[in-house]
Write a structure and sequence with these properties.
By secondary structure, the chain is α+β, with helices and mostly antiparallel strands. The protein has a domain of about 140 residues. The chain is built from ten helices and ten strands. Strands 9-3-2-1-10 form a five-stranded antiparallel β-sheet. Strands 4-5-8-6-7 form a five-stranded mixed β-sheet. This is SseB family protein. It comes from Corynebacterium evansiae.
């Protein structure tokens, strides 16, 4: 793996897990043509990069154009029969002009600004909702439950697991994901429980304030694990755990710089990188 990839202890052979962010590597942003001239990357992997990000390696997003700087991993679907895996992700930072209030008014009040649909990809027309949970309080709750258990006290507020095959089990929400378990997928289907009910199912008790943010993505992208590994090995992309600010920034056009800000030295120096440094 390239130096841009941060080890995160996953069991997947390509070391990618839900809650990771795959981003344009600084080295290729600095000199796109020069880097690609010397990079050891297969044409198929390069083509897959353009399909996934909607732009060429090293070309940062520009408002109004379809290219993205980063992808948020939502799910990793292992496929042993095919000898690989498929990654479900959404593009970060691409705003649409459609206000959520005009289509899903019940969700609009819970959204993180800007309260519009974000363009997650170009696959089937579905709306994916990513929620941000209060990770600090979740960790305190977990510590309290652990202490109570060690003292022989019955833990309170945690729902019993539904019986296998029951309607409750079949409708069980997706697990939390991310380095701190701070993200969750929320169903936007008409028949789905309310957002507050879905959050309560995940955190173990009813408390609407546990949801700190919500962002809606129209569609998604599908990545082949072999392509992602090709990007990482060649150094045109980096990988690290996403932070809340990376996903829910109120300045979507600054997504890549926000990711750089949360990166270790020397990548964090690119937090102030200009889109056109030659003009400075």
């Amino acid at each position: 793996m390239s130096a841009d990839q941060q080890p995160n202890g996953t069991e997947n052979q390509f070391n990618v897990r839900p809650g990771d962010v795959i981003f344009q590597a600084p080295a290729v942003v600095v000199d796109p043509e020069g880097y690609l001239d010397t990079a050891d990357i297969e044409p198929a992997h390069l083509e897959a990069f353009v399909d996934a990000f909607g732009t060429s390696p090293g070309v940062l997003a520009v408002p109004g154009l379809p290219g993205a700087d980063a992808l948020l991993v939502l799910e990793v679907q292992d496929d042993p029969d095919a000898g690989g895996a498929t990654i479900v992700a959404v593009r970060l930072g691409l705003m649409s002009s459609e206000a959520v209030a005009n289509h899903l008014p019940s969700l609009a009040e819970k959204l993180t600004k800007p309260k519009v649909f974000f363009i997650g990809g170009d696959n089937e027309p579905v709306v994916l909702a990513v929620g941000l949970l209060d990770a600090d309080r979740l960790e305190l709750d977990a510590a309290g439950a652990s202490a109570a258990s060690s003292n022989g006290e019955a833990a309170s507020g945690s729902p019993e697991a539904p019986a296998p095959g029951s309607p409750e089990a079949n409708a069980a929400p997706a697990a939390r994901f991310g380095a701190r378990g701070q993200f969750m997928l929320i169903s936007t289907a008409e028949e789905a429980p309310s957002v507050d009910e879905q959050v309560a199912q995940v955190v173990g008790h009813v408390d609407p304030s546990m949801l700190r943010g919500l962002r809606l993505f129209h569609s998604y992208v599908l990545l082949d694990a072999a392509d992602v590994r090709g990007w990482l090995d060649s150094g045109i992309a980096g990988l690290q755990a996403a932070t809340a600010e990376d996903v829910f920034t109120d300045r979507p056009a600054e997504t890549w710089r926000q990711i750089m800000k949360n990166s270790p030295f020397p990548k964090n120096l690119f937090a102030t990188w200009a889109s056109h440094p030659e003009r400075n």
